Each structure stands twice: as C-alpha cells, then as structure tokens.
Amino acid sequence: MVVPVAASFLLACAGAPAASPTPAPGARGTADEASVEGTGVKGGVSTATTAASAPASQGSTTQPPRAPALPPPAAGLQLAYHETFEAPFAEPEAWTEDTYGPKSPWHVDDFDEDGAFFAEAGGELFRAGLRSFRAFRKSFTHGRDGWLTVELYGRDQNCDGVPESGGRFTSEGGKAHLVSKRHHDGAILRSTRPLPARYRVEVTVSGIRFGGAGPGGWLSPDGSKLNGYDGDEIGDPWRFRTSTPIPLPAITDNGVYFLCITDYARPAPHNNVFIHHHRKVVMDTDNNIPAWSAVWNPHTKRAEPDGSHYVSMIFLDGRAFGSPWTGNEFISFTPSGFQEGAVFVDKYLDGEAYTFVVERDGEAYTLAVSGRFHHGGDTTYVARRRFRDDPPTWHYNQTPGELGAPPMRETVKLGSRTFEAWPADVGYPDHFFFGDPHINYYEGTAAFDDVKLYLPAQ
C-alpha cells in the first residue's frame, strides 16, 4: 500500500524537519514550477519528420516502420568515441565523504548542498536537516582513454560512515543500467573532459522506469508505489519554500535526464535546485502530480496539461536569472514551434528505445530525438537555435566574450549576497551528462544502450 506523506520525520543523527503537505490538485509543481500555458517564441529552426504510421495512442495491427533517420553529423565532425558498455564498470569499493565547503572537489557556488542560499533561506531548520546525515560520493572513469566519468552519490542516514544505498551503473547485456533505489541516490555518466566548440553527442535510452501513470493510473499494479515512490519521500533538506523551511514532498516529481549540457567544470549529482541553475540545454522527463507540465497534442493542435511520460527539448532562457528555486525559464520545442514555458514535444512509451542528440556547431545548439512516441508515432524531432537568438541560450559561451558581450547583464540579490548572473569575464565549459542527477528526488531504473561522441576531424 502507499504510505501517506510523512507528517513528521525522525532524524538518525540530529533532528529533522517534517514534510510539507502534498500540494492540492491544481497547485504549481514542487521540483520544476512552471506554467502549462505556452507562448510562441521567435528564432530557431525546428522540424518533425514522421514516418507513415498511426500514432502510438491509436494502435496499429501492422509492424510500424522505423523512425526516420536522425540528421547526420555536421561536416567536419567524425566519430571519436563509441561506448557500448560491454566492459564492467570499475567501481571502487570505498566511498569518499563529501564534507562540503570550498575545499570539497564538488564545491561550486551558493546552491551547493551547504550553500549560502539554503542556509539563509532555511535557517537552523535547514542546518539541522543537513547535519542529520552524511554524504558520500564515488568518481571513476570508464571507456577508452577514460573519456567517460561515473559520478555516484549515497546518503548515510544513520551516520555510521556507510551509505545505506547509493546510485549505481551496472553493465549488463551491453547496456549501462542506472539504478536509483532511493530518491536520495544519485548517478550520472558525464564527459570527463570539457567539450570543444564543435561536437555531437548521441545516447540511446531504453527501459525507462521512473514513475509516471500507467493504464491503472499513478499507482503501481500491486498498489505499492505512487509515481514510482513508496509514498513517504521528501525533498529534504533543500527543497522548501521561502515562506517556510519545512521540506516539500518528493513524490510529486520523479524522472530521469536523457541528455543535458551543463555550464560548470565538474558535473555530479547535487540537490535539484543546484542542477536547475546549471543547464544550457536539456532533454529529460519529470513525471509530476498534480501536473505543472503540458504536452503538445498535434491532433487537437493545443497544449494539454499532462504530467506523465513527457519528453522535453529545452533551451534554457538566457534573458534572466529566473527563479532562485527552479532556475531559468524554458524555451521548449514543440511540433508547433518553440514555446515559452513547460510545454513539451511528446510522450515516451514503455518498452521503447529513444536516441537523443545534442550537436554544437559554433553558433547554435541542435537537439534531436528519434523513436516511437505517444502522439507522433515513429518520429524524429529536430530543433536548432542559435546561441544569440531571442531569447539567447543561457551561458552558451565556453570562453569569455564568445560571439560578443553577454546578451544579458543582471545583478542578482539572494538574501545578503549579490552577484552577476552572466559576468563578461567568465566562460562556461560544456559537459554532457545523463542519468539521475538529483539527490533529493527521482527513484527508479533506466538503461543507456550506448553513447557516441563526434569531434572535429584532425
């Protein structure tokens, strides 16, 4: 049976806050607050190439054709690495404790796990929550030349020096199987080295099991899971509201990242607020109840509220810093063109595999995804936006001054701290990652069949 959201939360090591009540239907989402109303956006090029097959939602009595091919790599790019995950992961046995602070290898900014943003907004209740457990990590390379790095996170709730669980990748049947048994597990695969000005990365994902609604609704067939969770999970200690430091439930959002480009030097699992501030472009899913997202329905030609199994194609909006809790606004590709807000391209289907692509050509990002979808059937969706289109893509520049001065200059004040959102003297390296980056949300499994990296020909 599903356990109700906890009214109180007992700490193993110190004392902990209770969870806030689950939002009422119609309330805005907790992990990614965004309107389901989309508005058109100028700029960019988008296409959707569909094979002659019925939409998956209508069913078909014949074998559907293969999805149209993905666009080929840009001229001058050649396949440099192709990992098929036949070899086992060389995961070390020992975990390394993350003790936070500027000396931590995983330290980045005010949205770190012990960041000033949370300390000021949450006060002693947040600090007590952070003291209630110990954080442990593993980081190790994989593949030829160590071109991939695995970053894992586990929480030691009883403070005995050993995490009760932790995110993992296992090599089985030529696939990297992601396993996050608890919502505070984290596991990503990322590029070891920063990516150059021109590149293309492709990853194929299958076996997606991170919540969402099934034929019988949001409960699992045996009634033991709600949105993939036991029912008592909370987003502690980082996800709360400015008005109260009591952590919000985690069961409202469950998902996985298919492919993301970040803006900092060492991608690793972090709290979801941190992750939302460090994305340039992303394709992911977040199964959310009550629905804060919408999916474009090509049959009704409108965005319909839908929190289950969406596939996003997002360029982060570089016009403003955005919400301190959820980061930049979305510029989303849909079959009707680009939209502002959480209006997404289509929905994935259980049992299907999807290939995701991000290509950077020196002046634009191209996102693509190919597979069999709920609305579009066998389809390849492609979206390209130049870095400085209106709106620009957040932190696109790998080096200071790339293509000119930052398109936005904003001074952000968070609590007692003030900083520039896009300083002119800073560059933002591109790294790709896929997996479960959130250490206070997301619980489930998925398989990553292979990953390819194309680089400029030598």
Automatic annotation (TrEMBL):
Residues 1-18 form the signal peptide. Residues 65-74 have a biased composition (Pro residues). Residues 17-29, 44-64 have a biased composition (Low complexity). Residues 17-74 are annotated as: Disordered. Keywords: Signal. The keyword Signal applies. This is Uncharacterized protein. It comes from Chondromyces apiculatus DSM 436.
